[in-house]
Write a structure and sequence with these properties.
Layout lengths: L1 E8 L10 E8 H13 L4 H19 L1
Antiparallel strand pairs: 1-2
Amino acid sequence: MMQCGMMLVKGGLDMAKTDTQISIRMTSEFKAELEAQAQKERRSVANLVLKVMEEYLEAQNKSE
């Protein structure tokens, strides 16, 4: 079963100024893993996903 989640996205981690949203689908098991990791890091799931995406893009830009 797939689940739809909402994630806020912008150029930085300042969630108060976020102005764009995207929707993603994931399994409920994967969402539970994200929630557990976010709780360990004392972050929201949206903030955790944004952090991971920013780190990925930074790494990709450095390798170019």
